[in-house]
Please model this.
Amino acid sequence: MAGEFRGAVFVHGAGGGGWEWAAWARVFSAAGIAVAAPDLRPAAAGLAETTLADYSMQVSHWLDAVPRPRVLVGASLGGLLAAMSADRADALVLVNPMPPGGLPAAPASPPVVPWGRRASLEGTRRALPGADDAAALFAFRRWRDESGAALDQARAGVALARPAVPVLLLISEADRDVPSQVSLDFAKAWDATAWRIPGGHVDPLLGRGAPTLAHHTLTWLKMGSENINVSNTA
Model:
C-alpha cells in the first residue's frame, strides 16, 4: 500500500455534517491531498423520505470529484456508507462504523430523529468526553435532525462483500453507540487493521487527539504500518 494518495473523501455520521472532519481535513490538506467533506443532503421528498441509498449515491458523486489514488473515510453511519462504496476507493478508513451486520437491538426511529432540535450542550459534552469546551460548543451548535428511515435501514444491516482494498478500523473503547466488540468482529471479518483507541463514539473526530490520530492514519496509508502507537490520541 506504500505510495502517495491524491484524494480523500470524508463522510460524516448521522445528525452531523462535514464540519466534524475539520481537524482531519486540515491534516490531510497539509499533506497535499485534495479533500472533500460535504454535508449529506436530504432527498428531494424531504428528510423523512431520505433513505440509505440516497446518501450512498451522494458519496459516490463525491468520490468521482477527487483524484485517484483516493481514500474514503467514514464515521458511524458515514462508516457504513463508506463501506458501501469501497469498490470506488483505493483504501478505506472506518471510524466506529455502523457494521454491515446491523445493530438489531436498536429501537425503531421516528420518521425524523430530532437531534438538532433537541440538542443540549450538556448532552454534547457527555457524548464528547475527550473534547474541550470549545469543541463541545462547536458541535452543539451544529447537530442536525436525521432521517429515521436511513438509520433504521443501517441498523437492519446491509449485505456487503469484503472489499479488495486495504481497510483500517478505528475503534473507541468507550463507544456507547457501536460496541467495541462489534467493531472488532467487523474488522476480523474483513481482515482489516484495527486500532483500539480511548474515548467515545465521536472523540476520534472532535476530541483533543483528533489531529494526532489523523497523522497516524496518514502514516498507515503511506506505509501500511500496523504497529503505530495510538494509545494517547484521545
Remarks:
- The domain at 7-223 is CATH 3.40.50.1820 (Rossmann fold).
